[in-house]
Amino acid sequence: MKHIHILPWLIIGALCAAAFYLRFVLWGYSFSALVCVCLAGILAFYEVTGILLPRFPVVIPILRRVFTVCLAVGIAVVTITEGIIIKASFGSPAEDIDYLVVLGAKVRVTGPSASLWDRIYGAYDYLEAHPDVIAIVSGGQGDDEPTAEAYSMYEELIDLGIDPGRIWIEDRATSTWENLHFSLDLIEEKTGKRPEKIGVLSSEYHLYRASLFTKACGVEFVGVPAKTSRVTQKINHFMREVAGVWHYWLLGGQYE
Fold first, then answer.
1. Of 197, 28, 24, 203, which Cα lies nearest the Cα of 119?
2. What is the DSSP code string of the chain?
3. What are the tens digits of pLDDT across the range 82-115?
4. How far apart are CA 224 and CA 118, in angstroms?
């Protein structure tokens, strides 16, 4: 029997403890918890197969090679996808637009979540710098939200000094797909025509997927990034977005 090294198992234990903390103590870090579990599983696989190697000298090397190849392909896919997401995260805010759709995020009992505040401040900065642009704040009310996301953004932007006449409210959407469809419908209802191009403001990690939704609506996309203020949240959401993008590519976009 191969001698068992303690350090790798301590690392595995630490990763499992971190996963438990991220999943059950902190809010919104479930994907980081999943990453910790996956890392612990990968390390455990190599440790366990190393221990079993003397008993199964033919099977274990083959199993390890297959696993390593699959792992390398997975890492390459994630890396390439993450690169696409990061490239899109810069947006193209210098392009001229008439309408800016501001995508909603969680509203808590205490007020806007950190992500929603980031989008509110991002919208404020953009509207201050572009006084002719109309904003459509979009987001309905979830079962666990005290008010619609659109109304929360509307009230905060007014408090910050934005003219209420420049803010249109779309308060029915429960998904990004609906955010864009309902906002385009609202613009058409108010102006009599559907725009060929719109700006979309969302958290920077979400811009690539938002661009896919927008183009699926037949409209040219202009990305306006809202910078995520919490570093840990930014790391978590950039990792999570890889799964979101692949979900879109494989299953289509009418889901969130």
1. 203
2. -PPPPHHHHHHHHHHHHHHHHHHHTSSS-HHHHHHHHHHHHHHHHHHHHHHHTTT-TTHHHHHHHHHHHHHHHHHHHHHHHHHHHHHHTT--TTS--SEEEEE---EETTEE-HHHHHHHHHHHHHHHH-TTPEEEEE----TT-SS-HHHHHHHHHHHTT--GGGEEEE----SHHHHHHHHHHHHHHHHSS--SEEEEEEEGGGHHHHHHHHHHTT-EEEEEEEPPS-HHHHHHHHHHHHHHHHHHHHH-STT-
3. 999 999 999 999 999 999 999 999 999 999 999 9
4. 12
pLDDT digit string, tens, across residues 192-220: 999 999 999 999 999 999 999 999 999 99
Amino acid at 41: G
